[in-house]
Structures are given as C-alpha cells and as structure tokens.
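# step 3/5: fold
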Amino acid sequence: MAFASSAMAATFNPALVISNDNMRAYDSMSQRDIQAFLNSQAGPLKSLSFARHDKGTTAAASTIIWEACQAWHISPRVMLTMLQKEQSLLTRKTLVAGDHGTLDWAVGMGCPDSSPRVEKYRGFGNQLWYAAQRLDGYGEHKNGSTIPLWKAPYVVIAGVKTANLATYKLYIYNPSIGAKTPYGDLSGQECGGNANFWKIYRKYFGDTFANPALRPIYRLRNVNNGNYLFTTSQAERYNLMKTSTWRYERVAFSWDTSVTTNTTPVYRFYNRRIQQYLFTASGKMYRWLRSSTKSATWRFDGAVFYASSSPTSATAVYQFANRKTGTTFLTTSRGDKRTFLNAAHRKKWKYQGVGFYMAHR
C-alpha cells in the first residue's frame, strides 16, 4: 500500500539513503497509527504480543515498536522498514521457528555474518529495543557505541562516501549497498542492503528526504454517497481503506507543523442524520453547529489540522459545499477548482471561496 506512488521515480543515491530528520522523526506515527498500519498488511504482527526488552511485561507488537522509537528517538517508519527489509514481516505469512526464528531475529540485531548470533538480542522486544538504541548511538558515541564519529562532508564505509549521519548509521548497521549500477529508480532490480531499505521506505512512506514536519492531509471518498473525508490520521486512513465504503483518493494537501502562522483550527463535524462530513475554519460556523439546537444533529470531531488565515507565503485552499447535503470538498488544485466550477458540477457543488490558507516554509 503505497504512501505516494508519484515519489517512486526518484534515483537511488547510496551516499544519501535517508535524511537525518526522517531518521529521527520519532513522532511521525502514534502507537495507534502503527497498529492501523500493521492491520493493513498481510503479515502476522497485527495480532501478536511479545515480551518487552526488560522481560517484565508483554505488549502488542505496535506498542513494542512505538516504545523503542520513543525511547531512542528513531522514526517508527524506519523500524517498520527494517522489519520488512530483514524478515519481510509486513508481508510474509509463514514464520520460521527454532534457532533462526523469524520473530526472534526480527530486524537482524545481533546477527553477524561471520560469527554466532548474540543471545542477548533474541526476542522481538529485544530486537526492536536494541536496534533502535544502536541506530541512536552509531556515529555519535552514545549508548556505549565506539563506532567512529561521522564528520562532514562525508565518512567512507563499505566503499560509500556517506554524506549524512543517518545514512552512515544505516551502513554501520548493514554495510551493503545492495544494488547494481546504474542505480536509477531501482524498480527493475531485486535489491538487498540499504538499496532495499530505500525501496521499502518509499513504497510505504514516501520520499526519504521529505520534510517530516509536513503532515499529509488524506482525501477519501464514500463510494455510496459521494461524501468526502479529510484526515491527518494515518490510523483513520488505514482503517477506512479496509472497508468497502471508503476509497482513498490521494494526499489533498499538507499541513506544515513547523510554521507558526498555521494556528487557525479547521474543525470537522459529522451529520448523524444524513451521514455527511463538514469542514470549516469559520468561528461563526463552529459556534452555530455546536449550539444546543444543532449539536444533536452535528457531532463535533474536533480540530483535524491547523491552517493560516493569511495569504502571505501560503497556498489557498478552495472550499465547495454540496448543495443537497452540505458535505465539504477541499482542494488546493486549480484544476479541481475549474472542474467543480464547470456547468455540470455547479448544479451539485456551490463554490464558497477560499476557506483558509496553508502556510509552508
């Protein structure tokens, strides 16, 4: 299930596999997001629990992943990619038992090529915890790591001039490019090593050098009634995509969480009677829908993201309302705007102007 298929055409660069920010984006997925993502995959992790690294208690795989990432400030997207890269645990349905058990060595932690496996790292909880700890420490002399520091402009490892710290960490963990030149987009290659990491990450989570502060706002459409839903929640997106009712269309636009002018809440309401969603940044509309006469019909779902009220250095978000149901359509695309303004669509959709702006760095 691709995050952004349009990003797949980029060329693999073995010296820059992933950005430092994306390696460290530990808040890019909540525990609920991780669970929903696992639920959407064919692999077994969606329904399995494991002992934590300290052996005191057990927890769901999603919790094990999330706790390790929070503790060591490593992105859950990185660790999910590692689970697929090392043991195909996002997609495989048959597990290996015994000394080389698939789950016991889930991310290949403590599995050197030329010596026995390290028992300390056996077990899913240990694998995730200590792998995240190692990725945190490599090249920074942290957590007992004695690996040489990474220094700009590059450090050579496995014949690669690693051009940032995050890429250096990946090569310390697995000193293999894993692809043949010319690299291209790698779509026609069976890859291993860090090329495979790059391919897997991009398949599920998009560009490895995207700004992690940019939170995509997903657009889904109800195939039964034409209702549109906009959400920043990865968990909600994955859960709805599993139903026969909702169809994921694309990333509608993005919310830059690092921009201080994006402070205007965009509220979501759900009409219980006609099962339609409405989105508004209008304080007046918000107060009206939350009034005692309307709240019985309109369920308040909270602020789903934050926007700007100023057009300065910002992108306009055009707003349309369905004339019959009141459901909202939002877009930054001028092509969408022209389509919804043509004669065929004007009968169904009323243009409400610029609903708000999305400011970006």
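# step 4/5: annotate
Residues 124-137 form the longest helix (14 residues).
# step 5/5: archive (pending)
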